[in-house]
TrEMBL record:
InterPro entries attached to this UniProt entry: GAF (IPR003018), GAF-like_dom_sf (IPR029016), PAS-like_dom_sf (IPR035965)
Source organism of this protein record: Mucilaginibacter ginkgonis
Gene3D superfamilies: 3.30.450.40, PAS domain (3.30.450.20)
Record domain GAF: where: 41-155
Domain of life of the organism encoding this protein: Bacteria
Protein name: GAF domain-containing protein
Taxonomic path: Bacteria, Pseudomonadati, Bacteroidota, Sphingobacteriia, Sphingobacteriales
A family per Pfam: GAF
């Protein structure tokens, strides 16, 4: 296995150790240092460290007995810590092929003894260690080992608690930001919703009212004399004569259909035309979870259309009158001219020709007028 892959497989990356590095405040660091001092005294070692490890670097989060702040991962004793290790103890580094060539062993530090406990995160990566160093060859007693392991677990619990606490702060801040953004969007949607001239009501699958806009309040108060309320069944706000038809439309919307109808609804003292729309509201799984019910007052539009229809009918009547009333005399004139010619009596042909031409021209003009009337 290549060296880089070896480290990456065993140790966490930059994100892993920074999760812990960024969450340690002065109070926590003082608490960790206190535990580290206890470990050092009980185990009788001059140097004790709490480290954070990545695949390339080792940082000394807390250090007793040295001024160093860290070193390269491949120059450290802790590079050989495994996630499954409880304690790695090296009594004489000069006799261990893994360590006898390290600078801290062959150089001025003259390290001989090492004991390390891995700190393992919930992804099974070694993110750090609690370790002890001495220039003397030695062996930890069972009591020292037990104390070392127990206090190291406490150290990791503190680190993990602070990491989770910091993570929760970040998540809470992000959630608050998202909440503010969502509220802003909802306010804009509500403003648009309430500014609509149509009635909009959101219904659950049982036809109960989930939400409604301001126009719904005004329309229901005006036409029914009622106040619309949340969680009330929409049937309470529909005229008795329209309930059965509305239920059919609602059932169709529950089946995923978009329904649009123009209906004339009779109220106590007035009948009004409405364009009714029911739309199914789908979730991410394409399941109907609600129904949007909208109603637009189209009474004036309908009246205008009916007025235009009445005018068109009148124009048709005029066209019929023009066709039969005005063209009939013209046809009579042309018929008389033909009879006179057939009679054989002396007649001024020039006058008859002029009369015939005038009648034909008049007939053509009447045809044009009738055709224009029929198309307009």
């Amino acid at each position: 296995m290549r060296r880089d892959n070896y480290f990456k497989k065993r140790f966490g990356g930059e994100t892993d150790y920074r999760d812990y590095l960024n969450c340690i405040d002065k109070i926590t660091k003082s608490e960790l240092n206190g535990l580290l001092c206890v470990i050092g005294k009980i185990c009788d070692t001059p140097v004790s460290l709490i480290t954070l490890l990545s695949d390339r670097k080792q940082w000394f989060l807390c250090a007793n007995g040295t001024d160093m702040s860290g070193n390269d991962a491949d120059a450290s004793f802790c590079q050989y810590l495994k996630p499954e290790d409880e304690l790695l103890e090296v009594q004489d580094a000069t006799l261990d092929g893994r360590f006898n060539n390290l600078d801290v062993v062959t150089g001025e530090f003259h390290i001989r003894f090492y004991a390390g406990i891995p700190l393992v995160n919930n992804r099974g990566k070694v993110i750090g260690s609690v370790c002890l160093f001495d220039t003397r060859i030695k062996t930890l007693s069972d009591y020292q080992k037990t104390t070392f392991v127990t206090l190291s677990k406490q150290i990791f619990k503190i680190l993990e608690y602070k990491r989770v606490e910091e993570y929760n702060k970040v998540v809470t801040a992000e959630l608050q930001l998202q909440k503010e953004k969502t509220e802003s969007v909802l306010q804009k949607l509500r403003a648009y919703f309430d500014s609509s001239p149509s009635m909009h009501i959101l219904l659950d699958l049982e036809m109960n009212v989930l939400d409604f806009n301001k126009e719904s309040v005004a329309i229901i108060q005006k036409y029914l004399g009622k106040q619309i309320l949340y969680e009330k069944n929409i049937i309470n706000y529909i005229t008795p004569g329209y309930v059965r038809h509305f239920k059919k439309l609602f059932d169709a919307a529950l089946r995923g259909k978009r329904i649009v109808r123009e209906v004339l609804i009779d109220y106590v003292d007035i009948a009004t035309w409405w364009r009714i729309t029911l739309r199914p509201v789908l979730n991410d799984d394409k399941r109907v979870v609600a129904v949007s019910y909208s109603a637009m007052n189209i009474h004036e539009t309908k009246q205008h259309v009916e007025e235009i229809s009445r005018q068109n009918n009148k124009l048709q009547e005029i066209a019929i009158i023009q066709s039969h009333g005005y063209r009939k005399p013209v046809a009579s004139i042309l018929g008389l001219i033909d009879i006179i010619r057939r009679d054989g009596n002396s007649v001024d042909e020039e006058i008859l020709g002029m009369l015939e031409k005038a009648a034909i021209d008049l007939d053509e003009q009447i045809r044009k007028v009738v055709k224009f009337t029929e198309h307009n």
